[in-house]
Amino acid sequence: MINPRSPFWVGLLLLVFLGVPGVEGGVGFWTSIGPQGANVRVILIAPSAIYLGTNGGSIFLSVDHGAKWKKIFGGAADTAIADLAVVNGSLYAAVRSTVAFAVFEPPWGPGTPPPPPETPGTGVFRSSDGGRSWSLAGLDKQSALSFAIDPRDPSTIYVVTDRGLNRSRDGGVSWETIFHSDETREVLSVAVDSSDSAILYLGTTIGGYKSVDRGDSFRSMLHPDPSCKRYFVNCSGYLATDLPPKPVSMFLGDPASPRNVYALMLGQVFQTLDAGETWIQAGGLSGVSRIALDPSHPGRIYAVSPAGLFSRSVSSVFWSPLGPPPQGLGSFFAMAVDAQTPSRLYLGTQWGPFRSEDSGASWTSLNETLRDLTATAFSFDPSDPSIAYVAQYQRGILKTTDAGRTWSVTGFSDPEALVESILVDPFDPRHLLAFTSEWISGRIPLLRSTDGGVTWTRGPAIFNDVLGEPHVLIADPTLPGSLYLGNHSSVFITRSGGLSWASAALQKPASGTSGVPVVFALAADPRHPGVAYAGGRGGLFRTDDRGSSWQFLFTNLDEISSLAFAARDPFPPLAVTPSGLFDLAGGLLWDSSVSQSRVLTSVAVDSSSGAIYVTTAGGVFRSFDSGISWQPLGEGLPASLSSGVSVHPKDGCLAVVTQSGVYAYELPDQCLDSLSSLRPPCRIPSPHPPIILPSRGGGG
């Protein structure tokens, strides 16, 4: 049963109601608890507002130069905001897919569009009321990458998608593809000349193209031509170098000098002074990730690179350093200059936005009310739910001691390690274990801390190339120091808290399914010491001797992704498969075959209340009657869940990992008396009507 006086809920309610402006939530809602920051991919400065687009598919609005942020758009799963634009008072968003896909022997020919996969929730979206409501403006399920607006006719919009360059002449009502991506080239960027809107500049993976008739036709430029003898000087519009074609990720036109255009190619800036007829390299700066014009100094351009922030005038040979960028924040993806206050600059980084009031000499973080960073793993401290750990790729493992109000990096920070699981020892919360998905040969994936994350050590080296990397790690709740770890073909067992491990191979009978078992799920029986189950690809296995030997049970439950033990008599194991949720004592509790949206990803159980929680790609459901009926659990959860529900063993606190960070579930039916004088009484929402499923055979 949830305890409303637990440190977690006290901290969470303070976070929502008192401490952090811009954090939304409330009774019956999921509330973001961080970590602070966002992977910022685009910054748009509009009159009286700033908009951020993130790699988590969200759009944030600030009306006070970034001091506070409000989320106004939450995208579908596996999407990101690629570009933003304001057209005739409406806000447009280009939404792209973040799912990588392979292309095998494309059957299409030159000049025809490739058939990239359709991703729900991608395309161009429009809001005419400041982000309060959104509608699809076109290019449905196409991965939209960038915008360009005709400055003289804002109803003419150009959008780059994974299929090519698209044009709308009616403000997004209808679209036509005017330049196709194909197997030889992909369109990356587009820009409209500020003085002559008939001129377009198009960046592709093999160089640039130019149109003088609003996209009806294009000619190539910025392509290598060995016949030109002068290095970095064009010959008939071609770049004089023996190097292969360079992708042009960005064009930037100078409104003060219309024939002056910049191109960003593989971290180097090129410049034309004759509208693309000839090009030169603009100084020797390398590693540039973004360029922006200074609206107060015609002909002046900013560039940001790992070495710092630089500026250059149109006639300068070299770049002038302005100051270092914020340190320790990974890559820089976005940059903007405030036209009203040109000394005010904004940077969008991998870990959040920053603002400078002195042209880049110093920077201030704008992360305090921003929470949109993807997490890869999460774990409560079982002794204190206000303490938790979260992992982020290229950042390491972070810790909170105040229910998510603030987070700090622990002693493990490795930009090359992807932490996939964190486990806090239920008998000693100072003892932590984690494992990573290592992409570098020779790295040991196991991590161990004995001081609450202050320091970490790697090892022992129990894996090799044959056994592969770990998939799941659990603690045995009946024996201190006893842990199970599953990987490709074995279950590893330790009774020393991870200091040493022994392996037990999983063997199927000769009549069983073919192939080596792969363990994706483990569960230890909290009522029967020594009993545990292992599942994954190849069926279900059971041990009665703490993992020394495993018995193959059956194969009709295959591809098991999650296991848990029910909290009510007869306390059977529960298993999630692509077909649904199974109670090994009674049958099917959730049928995933009803629709793709009902496919389950995990199961968890609150041992104190008996509630069963299941997750789909887009939501959490709860059952209090052993799976006969289910209720959707609250509102406010982002579209994409990265992990199952974490249930605190003492307080029943709930948390999930999403592509926008960690979300906790607010109290559904109780109020904190200790906070009654600080805020209005809780509004108890009407419960969702239960989804009644046929007993032992229904589905969502």
What fraction of the residues are assigned to beta strands by DSSP? 35-45%
Kindly identify the CATH topology of the largest domain: Methylamine Dehydrogenase, Chain H
Radius of gyration: 28 Å
The CATH class of the largest domain is identified as Mainly Beta
Structural domain count: 2
Spell out the CATH superfamily of the largest domain: YVTN repeat-like/Quinoprotein amine dehydrogenase
Describe the structure.
With 700 residues, the chain is mainly beta. The protein has two domains: 1-34 and 561-700, no CATH class; 39-99 and 110-371, Methylamine Dehydrogenase, Chain H. The protein has one helix and 59 strands. The strands form 15 sheets. Strands 52-53-54-55-59 form a five-stranded antiparallel β-sheet, with no helix packed on it. The two termini are 25 Å apart. Residues 1-26, 101-114, 228-242 and 667-700 have low confidence and may be disordered.
